[in-house]
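Appendix B, Record 12. Input sequence as logged:
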Amino acid sequence: MTTKERIILESAKLFLKHGYSNVSLNMILDTCHLSKGGFYHYFPSKESLFRELLNHEVFGAIVIPEELKDKNISAVKKMKLLVKFSYGYFERIKGLIGENDFFGIYPLVFQGIIENKHLLDKFKNLYIDYEKFLEAIIDEGKNEGEFKEKINSRDFAYQIISSIEGIFLVWSITKDFDLKKHLELVINNIIETIKAKEEI
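Logged structural output:
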């Protein structure tokens, strides 16, 4: 891990625990064992560090795995693989910032958007790209006869996104249910809803 990456991740933990406004530059310096000169070598200000933090994978970088782009994999299997990759994201982020701080991602992102208006377009575009990708998977399933022809692909793409995000949010607050199990349940229910009926 590079020094810059370490500063970003250690600062993320501080912001998640105390909130952006309550974290001083001195707190960052003490936590990262840096001098002011060492900090300014990588970031001109706390604000620039925060902006870069929000561009980090911890905060909403939706990376579409190559496996989901494979034309030889059925649409149904791709949708089931969404659980694998969504849970994999959670495990990766949990390893970076810790399970207890996972909930803090949501308010911190909202705070970042409020204080840095240009970030709204960044997150909006992330979700639009994700929706279009899921819509393409559903269209693929319709063309191959896996899904019902008359369903609205865009509507179900947004349903998948909102369901997955909702599960993460509720789990991060309560932590009283099996996250992976509920991700699988939601995706399987959506598949059953849109799946073409098998001819008898």
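The chain is about 70% helix and 0% strand.
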